[in-house]
Design brief:
One of its GO terms (molecular function) is nucleic acid binding. With 488 residues, this protein is α/β, with parallel strands linked by helices. The protein has three domains: 190 residues, inorganic pyrophosphatase (n-terminal core) (Alpha-Beta Complex), CATH 3.90.1640; 155 residues, no CATH class; 113 residues, Diaminopimelate Epimerase, Chain A, domain 1 (Roll), CATH 3.10.310.40. It has 18 helices and 15 strands. It is globular.
């Protein structure tokens, strides 16, 4: 593991301060409200904190929100009565909005989004990697932050280290040239491996690689998205047979785990040839090679064995408005909770598949001078537009020098999910900062990371907002020399 570049001791000390604060709340018999977002990292982080509180016999409740405005609405309606409140995977970018509401309450924020500068009351504790020189977009997610706090509360909570890995993978923090976690995430991985909770290997990263038929596994893989194969089992079957890779052994379907190393090389090289024939970037195939993270204590034929698939299940629950099922599974519940989560996942996959079919229609993607706009309208569920944006951004179908701006209607507002390539971020593009500033300018809210961010803008302001966003991105990127290519 590489040497950590940030202030590790300072970060751990702040996590310990937060743990001590929570232990005091529990000792005083306080009821604790936990609020989190609705994606895989959010549900993982809330699950870790909730499980840690359960271990201390604390009184608590967990709620998942689509946005910070939902919390403000709950508060103003009198539904936030707890004196002690924890935010996971949200809060760092909205302290100025939260302070007037919660200034006289005890608040803990465990987040990895870029924080706004604000002087916080002594009753508040804020744990955020950016404050200690770590990149919250790449090196640790909210689940990792929550894990450090939980472990400081009780060393036995190291059992939730794999859930922190699940959250980081759910936030796509392995999206680098090696498809592996690094930074503080790598520290958590090492602890999980040392305690025989996680197994890490180099392999081809396919969805359901340990238990699904090979052609089904290939077709179900959407990270990266392989145009013409992802979502199409027949096409995946034909592709494999054209390579001379047997999909059956007698009457049994073969899985990726059944392939020899020679067959895996044939699959990889075949994918490169396929991409070249379709005039698609070969980097898509590179994204299929990397580290796999397997939860040792989970059955290999479930969605929970592979940490990336676990993250997809949690994301499905959160984006389908049924976060409770995902949080329970993250806390360790199985049986009925897992069965419900699996049912939700199957419905979610169908919904996302329909959205991807819609994206392929003429006119849905509009290329402006400096951005590409996905016009989801009412067709794409606003709760799932971020998932569609992530899939599309890995497809090679977009110009590498323009960020994707995905839109979906959400009542009187438009939900925006933005994605940039690593090359653009390395050149200085910061989508989170841009959407934060423009969101406020146009009567909405925005924020997030440099590489992935979101916003909500009033519907009536969208035309002017997109024009200003296109202009701002162009000015930002123009300040850096050189071109961005698919193979940078």
């Amino acid at each position: 593991m590489k040497k950590l570049e940030g202030d590790f001791e300072g970060f751990v000390k702040q996590a310990e301060n937060a743990a001590e604060r929570i232990r005091n709340w529990v000792a005083q018999g306080e009821f604790i409200d936990i609020f989190t977002h609705n994606d895989a990292d959010a549900l993982s982080s809330a699950g870790i904190i909730a499980a840690a509180l359960r271990r201390e016999d604390a009184r608590f409740r967990v709620r998942s929100l689509n946005r910070i405005d939902d919390f403000i609405e709950l508060f103003n309606s009198g539904y936030v009565e707890a004196k002690c409140i924890i935010f996971t995977d949200m809060g760092s970018g909205y302290t100025s909005e939260l302070l007037p509401l919660l200034g006289n309450r005890s608040v803990a924020i465990f987040d990895h989004h870029e924080p706004v500068q604000a002087s916080l009351p002594p009753e508040w504790v804020h744990v955020n990697p950016h404050q200690y020189g770590f990149d919250g977009a790449r090196e640790i997610s909210a689940s990792g932050v929550s894990y450090f706090v939980a472990k400081a509360m009780n060393p036995a909570n190291i059992e939730y280290s794999p859930i922190a890995v699940v959250g980081a993978l759910g936030d796509l923090q392995d999206k680098n040239t090696q498809r592996r976690l690094h930074g503080l995430n790598e520290y958590i991985v090492a602890e999980a491996v040392e305690n025989k909770l996680l197994e890490v290997k180099d392999d081809i990263i396919l969805y359901g690689r340990t238990f699904r038929p090979l052609h089904v596994s290939l077709a179900m893989t959407t990270s990266p998205y392989i145009p013409g194969i992802s979502g199409n089992e027949q096409a995946a079957y034909s592709f494999l047979t054209s390579l001379g890779i047997g999909v059956k052994e007698g009457e049994q379907w073969r899985t990726l785990a059944d392939l020899s190393e020679e067959e895996k090389k044939k699959l990889y090289n075949g994918l490169i040839e396929y991409l070249v024939s379709k005039n698609l970037p070969t980097t898509i195939a590179n994204e299929l090679i990397g580290k796999t993270y397997d939860l040792v204590k989970e059955s290999v034929w479930t969605y929970l064995s592979d940490a990336r698939e676990f993250a997809t299940l949690l994301n499905a629950c959160g984006k389908s408005g049924k976060a409770w099922a995902g949080i329970l599974v993250a806390m360790g519940a199985r049986s009925e909770a897992l069965e419900e989560a699996q049912r939700i996942l199957e419905e979610y996959r169908l919904s996302v598949a329909r959205a991807m079919d819609y994206v392929s229609q003429p006119g849905v993607l509009e290329e402006l001078s400096h951005i590409v706009v996905l016009k989801g309208g009412d067709v794409i569920d606003y709760r799932q537009v971020s998932s569609v944006a992530s899939i599309l951004s890995s497809s090679g179908l977009l110009p590498p020098d323009k960020p994707l701006i995905a839109l979906a209607n959400a009542g009187k507002t438009v939900k925006i999910s933005a994605r940039a390539s690593k090359q653009l971020v390395d050149r200085g593009l910061n989508l989170g900062a841009i959407l934060s500033r423009l969101g406020a300018q146009f009567g909405g809210k925005g924020g997030g990371h440099n590489i992935a961010a979101g916003a909500e803008i009033p519907y009536d302001h969208m035309i002017k907002f997109l024009a200003e966003l296109d202009k701002t991105v162009g000015e930002n990127v123009a300040s850096s020399k050189g071109e961005v290519t698919h193979n940078d």
